[in-house]
Design a protein that fits this description.
8-stranded mixed β-sheet, disordered N terminus
């Protein structure tokens, strides 16, 4: 009996330390697509005592959903560790987070960068401006995070991509992209317009904080290196990390820890700037 009690106490302590954050799953109605979409929200354990908190949006990859960064990515504890709100929207099976130029019912850019952000800011205690918002994602979501952040720098102050498909043009027959922007043969202009690597000219030095990483064994490694080179040529400061790894969850579970730390440092710097400005 004594041994059973000891094991029970140990189990409760482990459970408490692992699951201190709070998980909520909400259905956000997309007016743009006329449907309800599930979004997972992680709140740090001290959420109700805290003042307004920064928010990190985590985008899943191809064939994923709002559960991925929770169940496979194990990102929840980062809400407690960095005292941030984590938001995991369902971006559809193969949306690439675009507003489709050929299908008016496909508007995941509007949903994530507009409708989700508006809902989260109106229902939770957030820092409701770009100084308190970051967005990152893996694979399709890595492309999506940079795509949305580059196009909505008034919404997001920091962005990250891990193993991101940051140049779609070498993969014209993959991952359902042609459903939303047309085939590369019939709509070559869309394949130029809707890829992250061609959006560097939207950036101003030191405006958007950027972190990019990719495993050296990843099939997206080459396009990530090319984006890195393009950012260097444009003199856009950014963190770029290349380390051994493939296109899989062991790599992403490690990556998200570094990216959320990067965002946490950004949030702290922005808070310090505001505090200094208020003292003047």
């Amino acid at each position: 009996m004594k041994r059973f009690f000891t094991l029970l106490v140990a189990a409760l302590l482990i459970s408490g330390s692992s699951w201190a954050y709070n998980r909520e799953i909400v259905a956000i109605h997309s007016k743009a697509m006329d449907k309800d979409i599930l979004v997972t929200v992680f709140l740090p354990d001290n959420y109700h005592e805290a003042k307004n908190l920064p928010t990190v949006y985590l985008l899943h990859g191809y064939s994923g959903c709002n559960k991925d960064w929770d169940e496979m990515g194990q990102a929840g504890p980062l809400a407690d560790k960095h005292n941030v709100i984590l938001v995991l929207p369902d971006g559809g099976y193969d949306s690439w987070y675009w507003d489709s130029p050929i299908n008016p019912k496909h508007k995941y850019e509007t949903f994530v960068a507009g409708e989700v952000v508006s809902y989260i800011d109106s229902h939770y205690k957030t820092i409701a401006d770009r100084s308190g918002r970051a967005i990152m994602g893996l694979s399709m979501g890595g492309h999506g995070a940079l795509y949305l952040a580059f196009r909505h720098q008034d919404v997001f102050g920091a962005a990250g991509s891990t193993s991101g498909g940051v140049d779609i043009r070498p993969f014209p027959k993959n991952w359902g992209m042609s459903k939303w922007i047309g085939t590369i043969d019939e709509n070559p202009e869309n394949w130029e317009k809707y890829t992250v690597t061609n959006m560097v000219d939207l950036l101003k030095p030191n405006h958007l904080k950027i972190i990019i990483d990719c495993g050296t064994e990843d099939f997206f490694y080459k396009v990530n290196c090319q984006l890195h080179d393009k950012l260097l040529a444009a003199k856009i400061p950014h963190d770029f990390i290349a380390r051994p790894g493939a296109h899989n969850w062991p790599y992403w579970r490690n990556s998200v820890k570094f990216q959320v730390l990067f965002f946490s440092n950004f949030f702290e710097a922005e808070a310090a700037k505001k505090a200094a400005a208020e003292k003047k």
